Amino acid sequence: MTATAAPQTVPSRTAALAGSLPESAVLAVLRAALQEDAPYGDITSQTLIPAHARATAVLNARVPGVLSGGEVFAAAMKLTDPAAVVELLVRDGEAFAAGTALARVTGNARAVLLAERVGLNLVQRMSAIATKTAEFVALVDGTGARITDTRKTTPGLRVLERYAVRCGGGANHRFSLSDAVLAKDNHLAVLTGGDPAKLTAVLLAAKAQLGHTTHFEVEVDTMEQIEPVLAAGVDTIMLDNFSPAELAAGVRLVDGRARVEASGNVSLATVADIASAGVDVISIGGLTHSVTALDLGLDIDLAAGPDADPEVEFSGAAAGRPGTDPTAG
C-alpha cells in the first residue's frame, strides 16, 4: 500500500512524552497480559515453528492516526525475546498516514508470535485513544480550553490509557481517588440533603481538613449552586451537563474566582461550542471508555527472507509445558 502524506506532527509533544511512561507499570501490564494469553506457552507456534527460527515483522497502519504505545509494543517483544531488535519508525505523539510502517522487529519467530496479540492489543487501543484525543484538541484550538480525560478507564490499564491521552495532545485529570478532592453530586446529596443553603458551610469544613497543596474541586448541576460553592473558596468548579449558553452564563458568574471545568454530553459535534463558552477545562470520559481499537497489523516481512535452519529439529512443546512462564524468553 502506498502511504499518503501524513498530517503535520507536533515535535514539542513528542519530546515532552519521552520518559513519561513508567517502565515498571508497562512490564506489570505486559506480564499479566502474557500470562492470560499464553499460560502454558503458545502451542501453535511450538508445534509449527522450529525453536531457532527467526523472523522479521512490521507493524503497519491500515488507517491514519496518532501513535501511542510504540514503547509498549517494543517492550512486549523484548519480554518474550530479550535479544529481539525493535526499531520504532514513528514516535509516540506523531500523526501517521494509512500504509505507514510504524515499527519493525527482528527476533526469535516463536517469541515474536507469542508477543504479537498482546503488543497489538495495547498499541491499537492506545493509538485509538491518542487519535480521538487529537480530534478533540484540534476542535478547541485557539480557545484556551484544555481537553482532559476522566477515571473512566479500563481497569488495570489506566496508566497506559492516560499516557495515550497525552500522546493526543490532551491533559490528565486526577489519576485516582487519592490525588485530589472532587465533591460530586452524590457527595453533596449526602452532606446537604439537597439544600443549597448548606453547601458553603459543609465545604468550608471539609476544606479545613486539607493540606494547602491539595486541590479542591466541586461539581454543580444548577446555577443556584455556583455562588455557595465559590463562597467556600474552591479551586475548580465543574459545571456538569450545562448547555453552551448555560456554561457561558456560569463562566461570567464565576468571573475568575475559580477554574471552570465543563463535563457531560461532550462530543466532537459539541466540543467547539462548549469551548467557546470560555471554560478552562473540558473533561471527556469517551476518550478512554468507548474508543474502537485503531486498525494496525503485524505482518511478517517476506522480503527479509527466511531465517531458519531447515535441519533444526522441532522441539515440540518443551517450552510450553504446564508451569512454564511464557515471559521468560
Automatic annotation (TrEMBL):
Protein keywords: Glycosyltransferase, Pyridine nucleotide biosynthesis, Transferase
Pfam families in alphabetical order: QRPTase_C, QRPTase_N
Species name: Arthrobacter oryzae
BP-aspect Gene Ontology terms: NAD+ biosynthetic process; quinolinate catabolic process
Catalytic activity, as annotated: nicotinate beta-D-ribonucleotide + CO2 + diphosphate = quinolinate + 5-phospho-alpha-D-ribose 1-diphosphate + 2 H(+)
Gene3D superfamilies, A to Z: Aldolase class I, Quinolinate phosphoribosyl transferase, N-terminal domain
Protein name per Swiss-Prot or TrEMBL: Nicotinate-nucleotide pyrophosphorylase [carboxylating]
Annotated GO MF terms: nicotinate-nucleotide diphosphorylase (carboxylating) activity
Source species taxonomy: Bacteria, Bacillati, Actinomycetota, Actinomycetes, Micrococcales
UniProt KW Transferase keyword: yes
Taxonomic superkingdom: Bacteria
Broadest EC class assigned to this enzyme: transferase
Protein family: Belongs to the NadC/ModD family.
